[in-house]
C-alpha cells in the first residue's frame, strides 16, 4: 500500500464548480483544488515556480532541475503539490536525513534510514501569493508526515526574514545552520512530528 493510499485526509476532496453545457448536461471538469505527492513528470513545473520565487530574492534556487528530478525519483512520498484545475500552484519537496542537525551533505542526499524530514523548499506560484497558500500547504504537509511511521521531526533552513513565517507554522529555531550557500547564511528550524501510533488512533491513519 502506498503512503498516499493509507492517508484519507490527503486524498483530495475534489471540489468542482458546476458547469453545464448548452444542452443542460453537466460537463466533466478538473478538480478545483487537489493535493498529491509529486512525480518526476512534475519536475519542470516545480522548477519554473521555484526559479521565479527564489532567483529574484537570493539569486539562486535551493534545488536545480536535476536535483528536483533526483529527489522526486528517490522519495516522491516526501513531496506535496497543490494543484488547481490541474495546474501546480505550490509545492514542498523533502528528503530523509539521519543526523541531529543539517550539514552540507543534506543539500543533495536522501538517507532512507533517517527519521528527520529535511524540507528543501516550499514555493508558491507568483499569481497566487499573499493568499495564505504557503501556510496551508505546510500545515497539510506536517499532517501528512505525522502519518508516516518513520518520521519523527521536520528540519529546514531559511534566511532570517523567513523565520517568523515558519514560527507561525509551528517551527522552532535551533540557531545558525552549519550549511552555507555562497555568502548566504541560514537559521536551522525544526518541528516535532508525533508518533505513528498516536495519529493512527486519532486521525484514521
From TrEMBL:
Q: Name any GO cellular component annotation.
A: cytoplasm
Acyltransferase among keywords: yes
Q: In which pathway does it act?
A: Aromatic compound metabolism; melatonin biosynthesis; melatonin from serotonin: step 1/2
Q: Which InterPro entries match?
A: Acyl_CoA_acyltransferase (IPR016181), GNAT_dom (IPR000182), SNAT-like (IPR051635)
Q: Which domain of life is it from?
A: Eukaryota
**Which top class of enzyme applies to this chain?**
transferase
Q: Which UniProt keywords apply?
A: Acyltransferase, Biological rhythms, Cytoplasm, Melatonin biosynthesis, Phosphoprotein, Transferase
Keyword Ubl conjugation applies: no
Q: Which residues form the N-acetyltransferase domain?
A: 33-194
Annotated GO MF terms: aralkylamine N-acetyltransferase activity
UniProt cross-references to PANTHER family, sorted A to Z: SEROTONIN N-ACETYLTRANSFERASE
Family statement drawn from the similarity comment of this UniProt entry: Belongs to the acetyltransferase family. AANAT subfamily.
Please report the name of this protein according to its UniProt entry: Serotonin N-acetyltransferase
Amino acid at each position: 500500500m502506498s503512503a498516499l493510499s493509507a492517508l484519507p485526509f490527503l486524498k483530495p476532496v475534489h471540489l468542482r464548480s458546476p458547469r453545464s453545457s448548452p444542452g443542460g448536461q453537466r460537463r466533466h471538469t478538473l478538480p478545483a483544488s487537489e493535493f498529491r505527492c509529486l512525480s518526476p513528470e512534475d519536475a519542470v513545473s516545480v522548477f519554473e515556480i521555484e526559479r521565479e520565487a527564489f532567483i529574484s530574492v537570493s539569486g539562486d534556487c535551493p534545488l536545480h532541475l536535476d536535483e528536483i528530478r533526483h529527489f522526486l525519483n528517490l522519495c516522491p512520498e516526501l513531496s506535496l503539490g497543490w494543484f488547481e484545475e490541474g495546474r501546480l500552484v505550490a509545492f514542498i519537496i523533502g528528503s530523509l536525513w539521519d543526523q541531529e542537525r543539517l550539514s552540507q551533505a543534506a543539500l543533495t542526499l536522501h538517507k532512507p534510514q533517517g527519521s528527520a524530514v529535511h524540507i528543501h523548499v516550499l514555493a508558491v506560484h507568483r499569481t497566487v501569493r499573499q493568499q495564505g497558500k504557503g501556510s496551508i500547504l505546510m500545515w497539510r504537509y506536517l499532517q501528512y508526515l505525522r502519518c508516516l511511521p518513520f518520521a519523527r521531526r521536520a528540519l529546514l533552513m531559511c534566511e532570517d526574514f523567513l523565520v517568523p513565517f515558519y514560527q507561525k507554522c509551528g517551527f522552532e529555531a535551533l540557531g545558525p545552520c552549519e550549511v552555507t550557500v555562497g555568502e548566504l547564511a541560514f537559521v536551522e528550524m525544526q518541528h516535532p512530528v508525533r508518533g505513528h501510533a498516536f495519529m493512527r488512533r486519532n486521525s484514521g491513519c
